[in-house]
Amino acid sequence: MVNYGINKYNYTGDIMEYKRITLDYNSLEPYIDNKTLDLHYNSHYKNYTDNLNKYLNKHNYKYNHNPIYLAKHIDILPIEDRDEILYNLGGYLNHTLYFYTLTNIKKEIPTPMLNLINKYFTSYDNFKKEFIDMALQVKGSGYTFLVIDKDNNLRIINTSNQDTPYYYGFTPIMTIDVWEHSYYLKYNNKRKDYLEDIFNIIDYTKVYNLYLSNTSPSLWSQSLHKYFWAKVSKITILFYYI
């Protein structure tokens, strides 16, 4: 069972592995076309997940940590294939967050989340503008993130390729994928149009819950996201991570 925010996913099997989250929507039209969603989720995201598991199993990794722990403690990974593991781990984590915080249902921004945005970015419109401006600065492929820094402040940052903010000491709570495969079929080279549109399908309730889970001492102590449970016969893994 993987718990990413409020969603839980069960899996059992003889081979331990990390799993893609299950989407709670079938379509994101008209903002993301169905073909792009299908290719992005069932090809790109799947490939990063499969490759991550392939390299970890090659080195007999026991899956005794959640993926975020791996990203924060890369020294436990073998030197051999470490670059490949980090690349695919980043691709796995980035895509998981991207798909998790999208929604096909129009939702209002929770007032506490809006208050945070106003605190750090003066207004929602300014936050959106800053986020889009940052995303337009990504050279080639990468992501733009809303992150929590070490002082629990919100910041907007870019990463290249499949680097995850966890590698740099930040905790991501929202991201927009600006690799061309995430928008090119519908928007061609009009990245700004894609960025403007995708803001219509961000689930800020999930974003706010991720913020709370990573900044509230009370929620932190109640959460089991640092723990795992393994039953070795017909291996069943229970991960909680935010």
The chain-level structural class is alpha+beta
Rounded to the nearest angstrom, the radius of gyration is: 18 Å
Strand order, largest beta sheet: 2-1-7-6
Summarize the main sheet: 4 strands, mixed
Percent of residues in β-strands: 15-25%
Listing every helix as H and every strand as E from the N terminus to the C terminus, the arrangement reads EEHHHHHEEEHHHHEE
Overall body shape: globular
First CA to last CA: what distance?
13 Å
Briefly characterize the structure.
This protein is an alpha+beta fold. It has helices at 34-58, 67-72, 82-100, 111-121, 124-136, 184-187, 191-198, 204-215, 217-222; strands spanning 2-4, 7-9, 142-148, 154-160, 171-177, 228-231, 236-241.
What does this structure look like?
This protein is an alpha+beta fold and 242 residues long. Helix content is 43%, strand content 15%. The protein has 9 helices and 7 strands. The chain has helices spanning 34-58, 67-72, 82-100, 111-121, 124-136, 184-187, 191-198, 204-215, 217-222; strands spanning 2-4, 7-9, 142-148, 154-160, 171-177, 228-231, 236-241. The chain has a 4-stranded mixed beta sheet, with no helix packed on it. The protein has a 3-stranded antiparallel beta sheet with strand order 4-3-5, sandwiched between helices. Helix 4 packs across helix 5 (124-136). The model is unreliable at 1-13 and 218-242 (pLDDT under 50).
